[in-house]
Fold:
Amino acid sequence: MPDHRIHEHPILPAPEQAGVAFCWQGQPFLARQGETIASALFANGVRTFGHHPKDGAPQGIFCANGQCAQCSVVADGLPVKSCMVVVRPGMNVQPLDGLPVLPDVQGQPTTHPIETVDVECLIIGGGPAGLTAAIELGKAGVRALIVDDKHRLGGKLVLQTHKFFGSIEACHAGTRGIDIATRLEQEARQFENIRIWLNSTVLAVFSDRQVGVLRDNQQYVIVRPDILLVTAGAREKSLVFPGNTLPGVYGAGAFQTLVNRDLVRPTERLFVIGGGNVGLIAGYHALQAGIGVVGLCEALPECGGYKVHKDKLVRMGVPVYTSHTILRAEGKDEVEAVTIAQIDKKWRPIPGTEKRFECDTVLIAVGLDPVDEFLHKASEFGLPAVAAGDSEEIAEASAAMFTGRIRGLEIAKRLGRDVGEVPPEWHHTAEILKSRPGMTITEDLPETQTGVFPVFHCAQEIPCNPCTSICPNHSIRIEGDDVLGLPEFVGHECDGCEKCVAICPGLAITLLDFRKDAAQPTVVIPYEFSAKRIKKGDTVTVLDCEGVVLGNVEVTRVRAPREADRTLLVRVTAPADIAPRISGIRVQEPWQAESAERFEQSIGDDEIVCRCERVTAKELRALIRSGIRDMNHLKAVTRCGMGACGGKTCPNLIKRIFREEGIPADQVADLTRRPLFMEVPLGAFAGVVAGEALVQDVPRRHATDAHEGGM
Structure:
């Protein structure tokens, strides 16, 4: 039986063994305790979860966050989202082929009165913003309730194995996201006035200003808050290209969920689309998990993410193709290859620049949309509501933590607590943390060849200063603002403690030491990969921050000090002419990123825009050209936006087609939002608790059988 699990990771602890037995299409599989169906299937080598009823297209995961329905399967007779449902012992899982059919029900299900819960503040989402807000509300004595649809708090923090930027004081800079999540959860749980519901989904905000919640994914509850705080985060954007719905094409967040949360190895060779922080970090996380990264392409002339994130990839052997776009993903049942091409200033592919790469996974990391529908509906119905984190503005998690603090204090004051005004410096810090990458300068390498001192390979202004806080001699400073700027060594004193190398979130500091040998100085390099991959006496290839190979050097020491927090500090000796330029050690050999020779022409205008209903761009363009300007009209004709995801994925893509057709946005009627934002069994509204209904597991029928049965 194939094993696609990660058994060793440089940052994450060794996972427990899989011991929960379940069946997939009658074949016995094993899952880990608390593992979702999707992750368990991937761990057992299954990436196709069913076939679409419209055209039989294979279906797999896309978001792994409950926001779409690409991963639907049938578990114990009921259709479910496999990324949100935990494997139970003895569970019988089948692919969703054709339309799901309601099981036969015998007997009368037991109903319960619908519970109503009154709270002062309802927090939707237990990520970085929701947790920091809850901590401020807890301090102020406000009765608050956090509702989160995952099995633990932390949001995307639980997927982030890298160290965070910002400042130590404001947002735990230099600490890994997974550890920040644990700290914040522990702090929030210490307040008796803060209640927490996990595995619970907020369904809708109603016109009577009540909020429907499916608690523990079983029981429907009505919550009546005085004020609503929306910290539900963001959902990933999709992209239209031939082959965009093949199993193996999915979001970078889904990839991080599989790899960093569930320690599943979902791929051998992947290609990343999008050079923002999400895509760059996902590529780095793949390397840490021992996965080959074939390359990354970005449509803009420069990657939009932090340069230090890009530099980490290129100096480890990953090619980055800027001013390139994806032409298509290839494969019959799953991804087998990807083709990209360079684009001109009008964003058109340039013939003759095509490059084809063999890979089994394409990660889509082309931006995020805020999950803000609850905020808008609350405002429409007069329920006081505010947002923080990505639900308010897409930014880094460090900014979300700080905006959550601000909103928590503002809500406490609004509810009559004596907490004073929000300190002005909080707003200032929040704006800095939300700053986009600033000016990039040419790397300023030192000319000094005496003594010992740090070398800074960060050449872009970003909000980050843990190196200035950690230096025991206060020899590192940032000009101007103490967070946003570039660090420099002021030359007072350096004792070679290596603490700045250890804490740097961008792995962008090395320590250069000429004290023993001016011709062959030593260089200390941060390294976040398995200690089994490198040891004293090894010869390694070193590169500069642009990925240029500088040469092969000898490793003279490898150590893992406690203050480095699972970062290895590797000391090498190198000639003095290259030593200052060394910024990293290559971890991926060049052959892993080589392109294949074969190239095939584009397959035409058959790209899928609506993933749920398999609606193509050609169908939508024809209707738009016929004069339709209402997205609800398009929905009625083609079913686009009518699928199980609830119209969360395709509306922005449809609007893009309108723009391509030259239709101004003010002439387009937007899609009407559904009253319920998430799916829920109808029995829940009658007080039926999941698991208590008398449902028999009966054989499913295919779509054709369902139609013959009169459905």
About this structure: Confidence is low (pLDDT under 50) at residues 598-604, 693-711. The radius of gyration is 26 Å.
